[in-house]
Amino acid sequence: MNTYVGFMRGINVGGKGIVKMSELTSELDTAGFVNTQTYIQSGNVIFDSDAKDTDKLASHIKSIIQQQFNMTTEVVVFSKQDWRDIVRSAPSWWGDDMTWKHNLLIMTGPHTMSDVMKAIGDLKPDIEIVQPGKGVLYQSMSRALFGRTTTGKLASNPIYKHMTVRNFNTATKILSLIEK
């Protein structure tokens, strides 16, 4: 058995895309996933499977959500080792300064990081930092000057539809859960 973590875009955000995590867990268990658990209500799932292809696992979860919850969402799945590498390979500034907001922008579709960075646009280096990683972008920005940052306005950028966002605490908590 291999351990995986899956992230769903747009689940339980702003009163939309409502999926009860207990129901999602039940549906995934019925579909053959093992040791399924969710973390908070925003579409984070940890599970075991004999499967090895993360893209096929993501497609399977996406199909289950479509069929059982009548909802279309993007899903990204990482192996335990890949998630460990993503969190442990984070730049030293990511999560370091508590006066800044720290997110992990998880890409949900085919992309090149250079195209993603180009789509985001010019950053303001004194108040925000973004660094590409393996299928993710590490993002940090000033809380006090959030409204002036380029990445603080990311939700209005078309590239935003190709990512799902988790904060530093969620990203690192999920690592601790899969390490158990």
Kindly summarize this structure in a few lines.
The chain has 180 residues and is α+β, with helices and mostly antiparallel strands.
Distance between the termini: 15 Å
Could you spell the SSE succession in H and E letters? EHEEHEHEHEEEH
Per DSSP E runs of 2 or more residues, the count of β-strands stands at 8
Question: Measured on Cα atoms, how large is the radius of gyration?
Answer: 16 Å
- Gross morphology is globular
Give the amount of beta strand, in percent. 25-35%
Helix content: 25-40%
Low-confidence stretches: none
Mean pLDDT: 95
Strand order of the largest sheet: 2-3-1-4
Annotation field: number of helices: 5
Sheet/helix structural class: alpha+beta
User: Largest sheet, if any?
Assistant: 4 strands, antiparallel
Structure description:
The protein is globular and about 50 Å long. Helices cover about 30% and strands about 25% of the residues. The protein has helices spanning about 20-30, 55-70, 80-90, 115-120, 170-180, and strands at about 1-10, 35-40, 45-50, 75-80, 100-105, 130, 135-140, 165. It has 5 helices and 8 strands; from the N terminus they run E-H-E-E-H-E-H-E-H-E-E-E-H. Strands 2-3-1-4 form a 4-stranded antiparallel beta sheet, with helices on both faces. With about 180 residues, the chain is α+β, with helices and mostly antiparallel strands.
